[in-house]
Amino acid sequence: MSDTKVLEAVERYIRGEMNPDERLHFENLRKTNSEIDQLVVEHTLFLQQMNRFGEWKKFRSTLHDVHTDLAEQGKINSAKLAGKAKVVYLWKRYKRVAAIAASIAGITTLTISALVWSITPQTPAGEIEKLKGEIYSIKNKTNQTDKELNKVKNSITKSDNTIIYKTGGTGFIIDAKGYLVTNAHVVEGARNIAIQNSKGEYVAKVVFIDAVKDIAILKIEDESFKPYSSVPYAISRSAGKLAEPIFTLGYPRNEIVYGQGYLSAKTGFNGDTLSCQLELAANRGNSGSPILNRKGEVIGILNGRQRNTEGFAFAIQGKYIYKVLDDLKKDTSYQKVKITSKSSIGGLDFQQQVEKVEDYIFMVKVN
């Protein structure tokens, strides 16, 4: 069989275009012929590199579109970017990307050279072993290149594609790794979500939503976020006691706001058993705020949708966070999400508790 036909057979095998009999025959050939087996490995890597190179070309096109968009918005002076000046500008702005592109091109060239070398007849065993080492080296460099490229893409997306957030509410951490709870109606239909407090702003996504209970669980998806060591408050499994003093922290405006009151009923509007009734001032933006008691326990999630004419506020009972979390854990990707069952701030006065928990409360911004 000629080298060309061997290469065609290898490519059909990799792409899954062989019928069962052909595939069985080819796999037996791989087992008995080490050169064919090596060629399959190398050609698979080659095709992966070509796909990545294609992705890079798409990314370069995206950069061009970003530049054009910025020029149209008047954020850069495109008139000064004609000819060589434009090349210099783009080089200064995206020189890191250019370096990554050069790296990808170099890797692709080396891979092609390795492929041609591998199909040369009577390749010495020593050269094959050397080629294996180079292939592994290429793979490691490619993985690193992919990481660098993703970082640059993310940084450009953040800096050049400003998102205007129109609505929002409040959310609070339930797992130190970066999981939060808020009301489902706060993030309903969201295309983009960001969370923000005095420590910074981070990108987040919805990982589970229960519209009936009006509870959503978010996950921080941001490289700049550093997980907490622990969560200071616990989530209560009971609805609390009548006349029990409570407080909340939320974002009805661009700074965190404290509110204090008491539990006035163990059920919500018209006897709703999902909720409890609070004697508490609640404003737009407080939706999703935690309701805490003196034990340092979250007994509910303030629900800004439920209001009546007498001015009471309502909160989804904290115990339903556990039930929503159980539903989330049916997805094996989230089985390690855990809620703290013991508070470390119980017994402190409200002022001290606020100081301990305010960094765990976030403004939820939605687009």
Number of strands: 13
**Sheet with the most strands, sense and barrel status:** 6 strands, antiparallel, barrel
- Please write the string of helix (H) and strand (E) elements: HHHHHEEHEEEEEEEEEEHHE
* CATH fold group of the largest domain: Thrombin, subunit H
Structural class call reads alpha+beta
Average pLDDT, rounded to a whole number, is 80
Strand content: 15-25%
Query: How would you classify the quaternary structure?
Result: single chain
| CATH top level class name of the largest domain | Mainly Beta
What distance lies between the first and last C-alpha atoms, to the nearest angstrom?
A: 60 Å
Uncertain stretches: 80-92
Shape: elongated
Total individual domains: 2
CATH-defined architecture of the largest domain: Beta Barrel
* Percentage of residues in helical conformation: 40-55%
Number of alpha- plus pi-helical segments: 8
User: What's the Cα radius of gyration?
Assistant: 29 Å
Q: Characteristics of this structure?
A:
367 residues; alpha+beta; Thrombin, subunit H; 6-stranded antiparallel β-barrel; 6-stranded antiparallel barrel; 8 helices
Notes on the protein architecture:
There is one protein chain. The protein is an alpha+beta fold and 367 residues long. The protein folds into 2 domains: 3-160, no CATH class; 166-367, Thrombin, subunit H. Helices cover 43% and strands 23% of the residues. It is built from 8 helices and 13 strands. The strands form 2 sheets. The chain has a 6-stranded antiparallel beta barrel with strand order 1-2-5-4-3-13. It has a 6-stranded antiparallel barrel with strand order 7-8-9-12-11-10. Strand 10 (290-293) and strand 11 (297-307) form a beta hairpin. Helix 3 packs parallel to helix 5. The longest helix has 40 residues, at 34-73. The protein is elongated.
